[in-house]
Specification:
Largest sheet: none
Strand content: under 5%
Number of helices: 11
Distance between the termini: 58 Å
Length: 182
């Protein structure tokens, strides 16, 4: 790899860090390890070609162009966290990965067929994920945290909201949401 390629790769990884909170190589390797996948299986679940996944991991490409794929990455991150904390078994994770693979992405609040519980109301987790998705589509996690730091002295509640939903874990955001519904 020549100096220009190394510079382009470093620039792509920095953009990934800004957009996704970390370079995609690290993020995808963690998903592979946590969910017991290989690169080809991860690519299949995400809806990417194996070469595209490889290019994103290596920094040859910086951005995931398809919003549905970005949402699948977020869903897999949540699933990996659930597997890690023991709330989802390996067998359940395999089932959920098949569901994630079939998901079309898009707004979870407007697609009521996919997002409602038996009562017809959107689930708390889905509402939280929509808020997270919206914030993350507007700014990278680092930018959201910078904004939260700027707001904190005058508006601590808004700063907390940005931190929890813009850069935090879904489980923490669900707890926050439930604590503020009354």
């Amino acid at each position: 790899m020549d100096a220009a390629q190394q510079e382009a790769t470093a620039r792509a990884r920095e953009l990934q860090r800004n957009w996704y909170g970390e370079p995609l190589g690290a993020l995808f390797r963690r998903l592979i390890d946590d969910l017991g996948l290989n690169q080809a299986r991860l690519a299949g679940v995400l809806g990417l070609s194996a070469p595209m996944l490889s290019q994103l991991m290596s920094g040859q490409r910086a951005k995931i162009g398809n919003p549905a794929v970005v949402q699948r990455v977020q869903l897999l991150q949540d699933l990996a966290g659930q597997v890690a904390d023991g709330s989802v078994s390996a067998a359940e994770a395999t089932e959920r990965m098949e569901e994630i693979k079939k998901s079309q992405g898009g707004s979870v609040l407007t697609n009521t067929a996919q997002t409602t519980s038996g009562s017809g109301a959107p689930t708390v987790k889905r509402v939280v994920r929509e808020i997270q998705s919206l914030l993350r589509s507007v700014a990278a996690a680092g930018d959201v945290l910078d904004a939260a730091d700027s707001l904190a002295p005058a508006h601590p509640e808004l700063a907390e909201f940005l931190r929890v939903y813009g850069a935090g874990r879904t489980a923490d955001a669900v707890t926050h949401y439930q604590a503020h519904q009354s």
